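Section 4.2 – Deliverable D4.2 (structural model, holo form)

The reporting period included a commitment to supply a predicted holo structure for the target in complex with alpha-L-arabinofuranose. Inputs used:
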Amino acid sequence: MKVKILIITACMLFGLNMHAQNRLVINADAGKEIISKHIYGHFSEHLGHCIYGGYWVGEDSPIPNTRGIRNDVVQALKDIQIPNLRWPGGCFADEYHWMDGIGQRDKRPKMVNTHWGGVTEDNSFGTHEFLDLCEQLGCEPYITGNLGSGSIEEMSKWVEYITFDGESPMANLRRQNGREQPWKVKFWGVGNENWGCGGNMTADFYADQYRRYATYCRNYGDNQLYKIACGSGGIDFDWTEILMKNAGYQMQGLSLHHYTVPNSWADKGSATQFSEADYFSTIEKTLVMDNFVSRHSAIMDIYDPMKRVGLIVDEWGTWYNVEPGTNPGFLFQQNTLRDAIVAGINLNIFNQHADRVKMANIAQTVNVLQAVILTDNEKMALTPTYWVYYLYKVHQDATLLPLSLTSDKYELNGKEIDAVSVSASKDATGKIHITLVNIDLNKAQSIETELRGVTVKKVSGKILTSDKINDCNSFEKPDTVGVKDFKDAKLAGDRLTVNLPAKSVVMLEIE
Ligand code: AHR
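Output (C-alpha coordinates):
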Protein backbone atom coordinates (compact mmCIF):
# COMPACT_ATOMS: atom_id res chain seq x y z
CA MET A 1 0.00 0.00 0.00
CA LYS A 2 2.80 2.37 1.04
CA VAL A 3 4.64 1.62 -2.21
CA LYS A 4 1.52 2.36 -4.27
CA ILE A 5 1.03 5.72 -2.52
CA LEU A 6 4.68 6.52 -3.11
CA ILE A 7 4.37 5.76 -6.83
CA ILE A 8 1.17 7.82 -7.11
CA THR A 9 2.84 10.74 -5.30
CA ALA A 10 5.91 10.51 -7.53
CA CYS A 11 3.73 10.44 -10.62
CA MET A 12 1.81 13.50 -9.44
CA LEU A 13 4.99 15.32 -8.50
CA PHE A 14 6.65 14.68 -11.87
CA GLY A 15 3.44 15.14 -13.82
CA LEU A 16 3.50 11.63 -15.25
CA ASN A 17 0.45 9.71 -16.43
CA MET A 18 0.08 6.71 -14.11
CA HIS A 19 -0.97 4.43 -16.92
CA ALA A 20 1.94 5.27 -19.18
CA GLN A 21 4.52 2.53 -19.55
CA ASN A 22 6.64 4.41 -22.05
CA ARG A 23 8.76 7.48 -21.54
CA LEU A 24 10.25 9.59 -24.29
CA VAL A 25 12.58 12.57 -23.85
CA ILE A 26 13.33 14.67 -26.92
CA ASN A 27 16.11 17.25 -26.86
CA ALA A 28 14.57 19.69 -29.28
CA ASP A 29 17.45 22.18 -29.16
CA ALA A 30 20.32 19.75 -29.55
CA GLY A 31 20.25 18.27 -33.07
CA LYS A 32 23.26 18.37 -35.38
CA GLU A 33 22.87 15.59 -37.98
CA ILE A 34 20.78 16.15 -41.11
CA ILE A 35 18.51 13.27 -42.10
CA SER A 36 19.41 12.96 -45.78
CA LYS A 37 16.31 13.07 -47.93
CA HIS A 38 17.88 10.20 -49.85
CA ILE A 39 16.97 7.84 -46.99
CA TYR A 40 13.50 8.04 -48.57
CA GLY A 41 14.77 6.70 -51.89
CA HIS A 42 13.44 3.90 -54.09
CA PHE A 43 14.68 1.03 -56.21
CA SER A 44 13.18 -0.17 -59.50
CA GLU A 45 14.54 -3.08 -61.49
CA HIS A 46 13.71 -4.72 -64.80
CA LEU A 47 11.81 -7.36 -62.86
CA GLY A 48 8.22 -8.53 -63.28
CA HIS A 49 5.92 -5.57 -63.76
CA CYS A 50 8.04 -2.95 -62.04
CA ILE A 51 9.30 -1.18 -65.16
CA TYR A 52 6.97 -2.62 -67.81
CA GLY A 53 3.38 -1.96 -66.74
CA GLY A 54 4.51 -0.21 -63.56
CA TYR A 55 6.03 2.86 -65.17
CA TRP A 56 6.34 2.15 -68.86
CA VAL A 57 3.20 1.63 -70.91
CA GLY A 58 4.45 3.08 -74.21
CA GLU A 59 3.35 6.20 -76.03
CA ASP A 60 0.41 4.50 -77.77
CA SER A 61 -1.14 3.13 -74.57
CA PRO A 62 -4.72 4.16 -73.63
CA ILE A 63 -3.36 4.58 -70.07
CA PRO A 64 -2.64 8.31 -69.67
CA ASN A 65 1.10 8.78 -70.11
CA THR A 66 3.79 11.31 -70.90
CA ARG A 67 6.20 10.00 -73.51
CA GLY A 68 5.25 6.42 -72.54
CA ILE A 69 5.50 6.85 -68.76
CA ARG A 70 2.24 6.51 -66.84
CA ASN A 71 1.03 9.77 -65.27
CA ASP A 72 -0.77 8.27 -62.25
CA VAL A 73 2.37 6.55 -60.96
CA VAL A 74 4.49 9.67 -61.49
CA GLN A 75 1.99 11.83 -59.60
CA ALA A 76 1.73 9.36 -56.70
CA LEU A 77 5.52 9.27 -56.32
CA LYS A 78 5.78 13.05 -56.53
CA ASP A 79 3.24 13.25 -53.71
CA ILE A 80 5.67 11.42 -51.41
CA GLN A 81 8.58 13.55 -52.64
CA ILE A 82 10.58 10.65 -54.05
CA PRO A 83 14.19 11.93 -53.79
CA ASN A 84 16.01 9.34 -55.92
CA LEU A 85 15.43 6.21 -57.97
CA ARG A 86 17.91 3.34 -58.31
CA TRP A 87 17.92 1.48 -61.66
CA PRO A 88 18.28 -0.86 -63.66
CA GLY A 89 18.94 -3.47 -60.92
CA GLY A 90 19.57 -5.44 -58.78
CA CYS A 91 20.84 -8.63 -60.30
CA PHE A 92 19.64 -7.37 -63.68
CA ALA A 93 22.24 -4.57 -63.59
CA ASP A 94 25.18 -6.96 -63.93
CA GLU A 95 23.68 -8.49 -67.07
CA TYR A 96 22.49 -5.25 -68.63
CA HIS A 97 24.31 -3.77 -71.60
CA TRP A 98 23.23 -0.17 -71.81
CA MET A 99 23.92 0.22 -75.51
CA ASP A 100 21.06 -2.24 -76.18
CA GLY A 101 18.69 0.31 -74.65
CA ILE A 102 19.39 3.41 -76.76
CA GLY A 103 18.37 4.51 -80.26
CA GLN A 104 15.20 3.82 -82.17
CA ARG A 105 13.03 1.61 -79.97
CA ASP A 106 11.89 -0.89 -82.55
CA LYS A 107 15.48 -1.50 -83.62
CA ARG A 108 16.80 -2.27 -80.14
CA PRO A 109 18.05 -5.82 -79.65
CA LYS A 110 16.12 -8.14 -77.35
CA MET A 111 17.62 -10.14 -74.49
CA VAL A 112 16.49 -12.80 -72.05
CA ASN A 113 15.98 -11.63 -68.48
CA THR A 114 17.58 -14.76 -67.04
CA HIS A 115 17.27 -13.69 -63.41
CA TRP A 116 13.66 -12.75 -63.43
CA GLY A 117 11.32 -15.20 -65.07
CA GLY A 118 13.33 -15.83 -68.25
CA VAL A 119 11.13 -13.34 -70.09
CA THR A 120 12.14 -11.38 -73.18
CA GLU A 121 13.44 -7.92 -72.43
CA ASP A 122 12.91 -5.76 -75.50
CA ASN A 123 14.96 -2.86 -74.16
CA SER A 124 12.20 -0.36 -74.93
CA PHE A 125 12.90 1.25 -71.55
CA GLY A 126 16.54 2.32 -71.55
CA THR A 127 18.77 5.22 -70.54
CA HIS A 128 16.73 8.02 -72.16
CA GLU A 129 13.45 6.68 -70.82
CA PHE A 130 14.84 6.24 -67.30
CA LEU A 131 16.31 9.73 -67.18
CA ASP A 132 13.07 11.15 -68.58
CA LEU A 133 11.23 9.33 -65.77
CA CYS A 134 13.56 10.91 -63.18
CA GLU A 135 13.00 14.35 -64.72
CA GLN A 136 9.23 13.83 -64.58
CA LEU A 137 9.52 12.71 -60.95
CA GLY A 138 11.88 15.57 -60.08
CA CYS A 139 14.19 13.06 -58.40
CA GLU A 140 17.87 12.18 -58.69
CA PRO A 141 18.83 9.15 -60.76
CA TYR A 142 20.96 6.44 -59.18
CA ILE A 143 22.39 4.21 -61.91
CA THR A 144 24.06 0.87 -61.22
CA GLY A 145 26.67 -0.09 -63.80
CA ASN A 146 27.51 -3.61 -64.93
CA LEU A 147 30.70 -4.85 -63.29
CA GLY A 148 29.72 -8.54 -63.25
CA SER A 149 29.56 -9.20 -67.00
CA GLY A 150 30.36 -5.84 -68.58
CA SER A 151 33.71 -4.27 -69.36
CA ILE A 152 35.40 -1.25 -67.85
CA GLU A 153 35.15 0.40 -71.26
CA GLU A 154 31.38 -0.19 -71.35
CA MET A 155 30.81 1.37 -67.93
CA SER A 156 33.15 4.24 -68.66
CA LYS A 157 31.35 5.00 -71.94
CA TRP A 158 27.97 4.98 -70.19
CA VAL A 159 29.13 7.77 -67.88
CA GLU A 160 30.50 9.68 -70.86
CA TYR A 161 27.28 9.18 -72.87
CA ILE A 162 25.12 10.55 -70.08
CA THR A 163 27.23 13.34 -68.60
CA PHE A 164 29.79 14.67 -71.11
CA ASP A 165 29.02 18.07 -72.61
CA GLY A 166 31.78 18.40 -75.21
CA GLU A 167 32.71 16.69 -78.48
CA SER A 168 33.22 12.97 -77.97
CA PRO A 169 32.01 9.78 -79.61
CA MET A 170 29.58 9.03 -76.76
CA ALA A 171 28.31 12.61 -76.33
CA ASN A 172 27.73 12.77 -80.10
CA LEU A 173 25.88 9.45 -80.03
CA ARG A 174 23.62 10.85 -77.29
CA ARG A 175 22.92 13.89 -79.46
CA GLN A 176 22.12 11.66 -82.43
CA ASN A 177 19.62 9.90 -80.18
CA GLY A 178 17.84 13.15 -79.48
CA ARG A 179 19.38 14.54 -76.29
CA GLU A 180 21.52 17.61 -76.83
CA GLN A 181 22.33 18.51 -73.23
CA PRO A 182 24.02 16.02 -70.94
CA TRP A 183 22.09 14.86 -67.89
CA LYS A 184 23.33 15.29 -64.37
CA VAL A 185 23.86 11.94 -62.66
CA LYS A 186 25.45 11.91 -59.25
CA PHE A 187 24.80 8.47 -57.75
CA TRP A 188 26.68 5.74 -59.57
CA GLY A 189 26.77 2.13 -58.38
CA VAL A 190 29.76 0.07 -59.44
CA GLY A 191 28.12 -3.38 -59.60
CA ASN A 192 25.45 -5.00 -57.46
CA GLU A 193 25.69 -7.94 -55.05
CA ASN A 194 28.99 -8.95 -56.63
CA TRP A 195 29.38 -11.55 -53.86
CA GLY A 196 26.34 -13.28 -55.42
CA CYS A 197 24.35 -12.68 -58.60
CA GLY A 198 26.84 -9.99 -59.67
CA GLY A 199 29.68 -12.45 -60.31
CA ASN A 200 30.16 -14.56 -57.13
CA MET A 201 33.37 -12.70 -56.30
CA THR A 202 35.41 -12.70 -53.14
CA ALA A 203 35.73 -9.39 -51.30
CA ASP A 204 39.42 -9.07 -52.24
CA PHE A 205 38.74 -9.71 -55.91
CA TYR A 206 35.77 -7.30 -55.98
CA ALA A 207 37.74 -4.57 -54.17
CA ASP A 208 40.41 -4.74 -56.91
CA GLN A 209 37.75 -4.74 -59.64
CA TYR A 210 35.98 -1.83 -57.97
CA ARG A 211 39.17 0.22 -58.04
CA ARG A 212 39.69 -0.46 -61.76
CA TYR A 213 36.10 0.26 -62.81
CA ALA A 214 35.75 3.30 -60.55
CA THR A 215 38.95 4.80 -61.95
CA TYR A 216 37.38 5.10 -65.41
CA CYS A 217 34.03 6.45 -64.24
CA ARG A 218 35.04 10.08 -64.82
CA ASN A 219 33.71 13.38 -63.57
CA TYR A 220 32.86 15.44 -66.65
CA GLY A 221 32.47 19.20 -66.27
CA ASP A 222 30.71 19.92 -63.00
CA ASN A 223 29.09 16.48 -62.84
CA GLN A 224 30.68 14.95 -59.75
CA LEU A 225 29.94 11.25 -59.34
CA TYR A 226 29.15 9.82 -55.92
CA LYS A 227 30.50 6.31 -56.49
CA ILE A 228 28.88 3.53 -54.52
CA ALA A 229 30.69 0.23 -54.05
CA CYS A 230 28.83 -3.02 -53.62
CA GLY A 231 28.57 -3.80 -49.93
CA SER A 232 27.54 -6.67 -47.72
CA GLY A 233 24.35 -8.72 -47.89
CA GLY A 234 23.90 -8.16 -44.16
CA ILE A 235 25.78 -10.64 -42.03
CA ASP A 236 29.10 -10.52 -43.95
CA PHE A 237 31.10 -8.04 -41.89
CA ASP A 238 34.41 -9.13 -43.46
CA TRP A 239 33.19 -7.79 -46.80
CA THR A 240 32.81 -4.31 -45.30
CA GLU A 241 36.19 -4.55 -43.60
CA ILE A 242 38.01 -5.57 -46.80
CA LEU A 243 36.23 -3.03 -48.99
CA MET A 244 36.93 -0.18 -46.57
CA LYS A 245 40.55 -1.23 -46.16
CA ASN A 246 41.33 -1.84 -49.84
CA ALA A 247 39.09 0.61 -51.67
CA GLY A 248 37.55 2.96 -49.09
CA TYR A 249 39.54 5.95 -50.29
CA GLN A 250 38.10 5.57 -53.80
CA MET A 251 34.39 5.44 -52.91
CA GLN A 252 31.80 7.87 -51.60
CA GLY A 253 29.31 5.20 -50.58
CA LEU A 254 29.25 1.53 -49.60
CA SER A 255 26.02 -0.38 -49.88
CA LEU A 256 24.22 -2.74 -47.52
CA HIS A 257 21.33 -5.06 -48.39
CA HIS A 258 18.99 -6.62 -45.87
CA TYR A 259 15.60 -8.12 -46.62
CA THR A 260 12.98 -8.99 -44.00
CA VAL A 261 12.09 -12.63 -44.65
CA PRO A 262 9.67 -13.88 -41.95
CA ASN A 263 10.42 -17.61 -42.17
CA SER A 264 13.15 -19.17 -44.35
CA TRP A 265 14.32 -18.36 -47.89
CA ALA A 266 12.82 -21.68 -49.02
CA ASP A 267 9.38 -20.85 -47.63
CA LYS A 268 9.19 -17.17 -46.82
CA GLY A 269 5.55 -17.15 -45.76
CA SER A 270 2.48 -15.49 -47.22
CA ALA A 271 2.17 -11.73 -47.58
CA THR A 272 -1.42 -11.73 -46.35
CA GLN A 273 -2.14 -14.99 -44.48
CA PHE A 274 -0.04 -15.01 -41.35
CA SER A 275 -0.32 -15.72 -37.62
CA GLU A 276 0.73 -13.52 -34.72
CA ALA A 277 3.84 -15.71 -34.41
CA ASP A 278 4.66 -14.95 -38.08
CA TYR A 279 4.11 -11.26 -37.39
CA PHE A 280 6.38 -11.35 -34.35
CA SER A 281 9.07 -13.15 -36.33
CA THR A 282 8.78 -10.56 -39.15
CA ILE A 283 9.40 -7.76 -36.68
CA GLU A 284 12.33 -9.58 -35.08
CA LYS A 285 13.90 -10.05 -38.52
CA THR A 286 13.38 -6.42 -39.43
CA LEU A 287 14.87 -5.15 -36.16
CA VAL A 288 18.11 -6.87 -37.19
CA MET A 289 18.56 -3.88 -39.49
CA ASP A 290 19.55 -1.75 -36.48
CA ASN A 291 22.21 -4.27 -35.54
CA PHE A 292 23.54 -4.50 -39.11
CA VAL A 293 23.69 -0.74 -39.54
CA SER A 294 25.44 -0.30 -36.18
CA ARG A 295 28.00 -3.03 -36.80
CA HIS A 296 28.83 -2.09 -40.39
CA SER A 297 29.06 1.56 -39.29
CA ALA A 298 31.46 0.58 -36.49
CA ILE A 299 33.76 -1.11 -39.04
CA MET A 300 33.52 1.91 -41.34
CA ASP A 301 34.39 4.17 -38.38
CA ILE A 302 37.79 2.44 -38.08
CA TYR A 303 38.77 3.29 -41.67
CA ASP A 304 36.72 6.44 -42.04
CA PRO A 305 36.39 8.16 -38.65
CA MET A 306 35.28 11.41 -40.30
CA LYS A 307 32.31 9.58 -41.83
CA ARG A 308 33.10 10.66 -45.36
CA VAL A 309 31.78 7.40 -46.86
CA GLY A 310 28.02 6.96 -46.67
CA LEU A 311 26.36 3.67 -45.78
CA ILE A 312 23.86 3.18 -48.58
CA VAL A 313 21.09 0.71 -47.73
CA ASP A 314 20.08 0.43 -51.35
CA GLU A 315 17.91 -2.67 -51.00
CA TRP A 316 15.65 -3.37 -48.06
CA GLY A 317 12.07 -4.45 -47.43
CA THR A 318 9.87 -7.49 -46.90
CA TRP A 319 10.20 -10.55 -49.09
CA TYR A 320 7.38 -13.13 -48.99
CA ASN A 321 6.21 -15.97 -51.21
CA VAL A 322 4.73 -14.61 -54.43
CA GLU A 323 0.95 -14.30 -54.64
CA PRO A 324 -0.61 -17.64 -55.63
CA GLY A 325 -0.92 -18.05 -59.39
CA THR A 326 1.65 -15.36 -60.26
CA ASN A 327 5.00 -15.91 -62.01
CA PRO A 328 7.53 -16.94 -59.30
CA GLY A 329 10.18 -14.88 -61.10
CA PHE A 330 8.12 -11.68 -60.85
CA LEU A 331 8.22 -11.34 -57.04
CA PHE A 332 4.72 -9.89 -56.85
CA GLN A 333 3.36 -9.73 -53.29
CA GLN A 334 0.49 -7.91 -51.56
CA ASN A 335 1.25 -5.36 -48.90
CA THR A 336 -0.57 -5.13 -45.57
CA LEU A 337 -0.51 -3.10 -42.40
CA ARG A 338 2.34 -5.42 -41.31
CA ASP A 339 4.45 -3.96 -44.14
CA ALA A 340 3.62 -0.45 -42.99
CA ILE A 341 4.85 -1.32 -39.49
CA VAL A 342 8.06 -2.75 -41.01
CA ALA A 343 8.55 0.40 -43.11
CA GLY A 344 7.96 2.69 -40.11
CA ILE A 345 10.51 0.78 -38.01
CA ASN A 346 13.19 0.73 -40.73
CA LEU A 347 12.82 4.40 -41.60
CA ASN A 348 13.11 5.27 -37.89
CA ILE A 349 16.29 3.17 -37.73
CA PHE A 350 17.79 4.94 -40.76
CA ASN A 351 16.89 8.35 -39.34
CA GLN A 352 18.55 7.46 -36.03
CA HIS A 353 21.73 6.53 -37.93
CA ALA A 354 21.71 9.68 -40.06
CA ASP A 355 25.39 10.28 -39.26
CA ARG A 356 26.35 7.30 -41.43
CA VAL A 357 23.29 6.26 -43.44
CA LYS A 358 23.10 8.67 -46.36
CA MET A 359 20.68 6.80 -48.58
CA ALA A 360 18.21 3.91 -48.45
CA ASN A 361 16.11 2.44 -51.27
CA ILE A 362 13.09 0.28 -50.60
CA ALA A 363 12.74 -2.74 -52.89
CA GLN A 364 10.92 -2.18 -55.13
CA THR A 365 8.74 0.82 -55.98
CA VAL A 366 6.00 -0.73 -58.16
CA ASN A 367 4.59 -4.29 -58.26
CA VAL A 368 7.67 -6.01 -56.83
CA LEU A 369 8.41 -7.06 -53.20
CA GLN A 370 7.51 -4.30 -50.68
CA ALA A 371 6.03 -2.04 -53.33
CA VAL A 372 4.53 1.34 -52.54
CA ILE A 373 2.35 1.13 -55.65
CA LEU A 374 0.51 -1.76 -57.30
CA THR A 375 -0.84 -1.55 -60.84
CA ASP A 376 -3.02 -3.78 -62.98
CA ASN A 377 -3.34 -2.34 -66.48
CA GLU A 378 -5.06 1.03 -65.95
CA LYS A 379 -5.77 0.40 -62.23
CA MET A 380 -3.49 1.63 -59.47
CA ALA A 381 -3.52 1.05 -55.68
CA LEU A 382 -1.36 2.75 -53.09
CA THR A 383 -0.15 0.28 -50.47
CA PRO A 384 0.04 0.77 -46.67
CA THR A 385 3.81 1.17 -47.15
CA TYR A 386 3.12 4.09 -49.48
CA TRP A 387 1.27 5.87 -46.68
CA VAL A 388 4.26 5.51 -44.35
CA TYR A 389 6.39 7.37 -46.92
CA TYR A 390 3.62 9.95 -47.09
CA LEU A 391 3.74 10.44 -43.30
CA TYR A 392 7.52 10.36 -43.00
CA LYS A 393 8.37 12.77 -45.84
CA VAL A 394 8.53 15.53 -43.21
CA HIS A 395 11.90 14.13 -42.10
CA GLN A 396 13.57 14.72 -45.48
CA ASP A 397 16.61 16.98 -44.95
CA ALA A 398 15.43 17.90 -41.44
CA THR A 399 17.70 17.92 -38.39
CA LEU A 400 17.65 14.71 -36.38
CA LEU A 401 16.71 15.36 -32.76
CA PRO A 402 18.49 13.30 -30.09
CA LEU A 403 16.06 11.37 -27.91
CA SER A 404 15.84 8.65 -25.34
CA LEU A 405 13.00 6.16 -25.16
CA THR A 406 12.09 3.73 -22.43
CA SER A 407 9.70 1.35 -24.09
CA ASP A 408 7.20 -1.16 -22.85
CA LYS A 409 7.66 -4.67 -24.21
CA TYR A 410 5.59 -6.59 -26.72
CA GLU A 411 5.68 -10.21 -25.60
CA LEU A 412 4.80 -13.42 -27.37
CA ASN A 413 5.62 -17.02 -26.45
CA GLY A 414 8.26 -16.02 -23.91
CA LYS A 415 10.03 -13.57 -26.24
CA GLU A 416 9.89 -9.80 -26.04
CA ILE A 417 10.74 -6.80 -28.18
CA ASP A 418 10.33 -3.07 -27.62
CA ALA A 419 6.74 -2.13 -28.38
CA VAL A 420 7.57 1.37 -29.60
CA SER A 421 9.86 2.66 -32.34
CA VAL A 422 10.52 6.38 -32.75
CA SER A 423 12.52 9.11 -34.46
CA ALA A 424 12.19 12.89 -34.38
CA SER A 425 13.43 15.83 -36.41
CA LYS A 426 13.17 19.60 -36.71
CA ASP A 427 12.59 21.07 -40.17
CA ALA A 428 13.85 24.34 -41.66
CA THR A 429 10.76 26.22 -40.42
CA GLY A 430 11.29 25.03 -36.83
CA LYS A 431 8.46 22.49 -36.80
CA ILE A 432 9.18 19.28 -34.93
CA HIS A 433 8.02 15.94 -36.29
CA ILE A 434 7.91 12.73 -34.31
CA THR A 435 7.20 9.43 -36.03
CA LEU A 436 6.08 6.62 -33.74
CA VAL A 437 5.25 3.00 -34.38
CA ASN A 438 3.28 0.88 -31.95
CA ILE A 439 4.51 -2.57 -32.90
CA ASP A 440 2.27 -4.34 -30.38
CA LEU A 441 -0.53 -6.14 -32.14
CA ASN A 442 -2.87 -6.14 -29.17
CA LYS A 443 -2.12 -3.31 -26.75
CA ALA A 444 -2.36 0.45 -27.04
CA GLN A 445 0.71 2.27 -25.76
CA SER A 446 0.62 5.46 -23.77
CA ILE A 447 3.78 7.52 -24.12
CA GLU A 448 4.75 10.33 -21.79
CA THR A 449 6.88 12.69 -23.82
CA GLU A 450 9.03 15.49 -22.52
CA LEU A 451 10.11 18.07 -25.07
CA ARG A 452 13.22 19.82 -23.83
CA GLY A 453 14.45 23.15 -25.12
CA VAL A 454 11.30 24.25 -26.88
CA THR A 455 8.06 26.07 -26.11
CA VAL A 456 5.22 24.11 -27.59
CA LYS A 457 2.03 25.83 -28.73
CA LYS A 458 0.28 23.29 -30.84
CA VAL A 459 0.29 19.61 -31.68
CA SER A 460 -1.45 17.83 -34.53
CA GLY A 461 -0.99 14.42 -36.06
CA LYS A 462 -1.85 11.73 -38.59
CA ILE A 463 -2.31 8.01 -38.06
CA LEU A 464 -2.10 4.91 -40.22
CA THR A 465 -3.83 1.82 -38.85
CA SER A 466 -6.60 -0.61 -39.66
CA ASP A 467 -8.83 -3.21 -37.99
CA LYS A 468 -6.71 -6.18 -38.93
CA ILE A 469 -2.95 -6.48 -39.31
CA ASN A 470 -3.40 -8.23 -42.66
CA ASP A 471 -5.66 -5.55 -44.11
CA CYS A 472 -4.44 -4.37 -47.49
CA ASN A 473 -5.45 -2.08 -50.35
CA SER A 474 -6.72 -3.99 -53.35
CA PHE A 475 -7.77 -2.56 -56.72
CA GLU A 476 -11.38 -3.21 -55.70
CA LYS A 477 -10.97 -1.64 -52.24
CA PRO A 478 -8.03 0.76 -52.54
CA ASP A 479 -8.79 2.74 -49.36
CA THR A 480 -8.91 0.05 -46.66
CA VAL A 481 -5.64 1.17 -45.06
CA GLY A 482 -5.10 4.92 -45.21
CA VAL A 483 -4.13 8.01 -43.26
CA LYS A 484 -6.52 9.77 -40.87
CA ASP A 485 -6.22 12.68 -38.46
CA PHE A 486 -4.83 11.69 -35.07
CA LYS A 487 -6.34 13.38 -32.02
CA ASP A 488 -4.89 11.42 -29.14
CA ALA A 489 -1.87 13.58 -28.34
CA LYS A 490 -2.55 15.88 -25.36
CA LEU A 491 -0.31 18.77 -24.46
CA ALA A 492 0.33 20.11 -20.93
CA GLY A 493 3.27 22.56 -20.85
CA ASP A 494 6.27 20.75 -22.28
CA ARG A 495 4.65 17.37 -21.58
CA LEU A 496 2.87 15.47 -24.28
CA THR A 497 0.81 12.33 -23.64
CA VAL A 498 0.35 10.24 -26.73
CA ASN A 499 -1.93 7.23 -26.85
CA LEU A 500 -0.94 5.00 -29.71
CA PRO A 501 -3.51 2.40 -30.73
CA ALA A 502 -2.24 -1.14 -31.24
CA LYS A 503 -0.46 -1.75 -34.61
CA SER A 504 -0.28 1.84 -35.73
CA VAL A 505 2.10 4.36 -37.28
CA VAL A 506 1.69 7.97 -36.12
CA MET A 507 3.28 11.22 -37.24
CA LEU A 508 3.06 14.18 -34.86
CA GLU A 509 3.69 17.77 -35.86
CA ILE A 510 4.66 20.13 -33.07
CA GLU A 511 4.77 23.90 -33.44
O1 AHR B 1 15.26 -6.99 -55.27
C1 AHR B 1 15.36 -8.27 -55.80
C2 AHR B 1 16.81 -8.77 -55.85
O2 AHR B 1 17.28 -8.92 -54.55
C3 AHR B 1 17.81 -7.85 -56.49
O3 AHR B 1 17.83 -7.97 -57.86
C4 AHR B 1 19.10 -8.33 -55.90
O4 AHR B 1 20.07 -7.32 -55.83
C5 AHR B 1 18.69 -8.84 -54.54
O5 AHR B 1 19.21 -10.10 -54.28
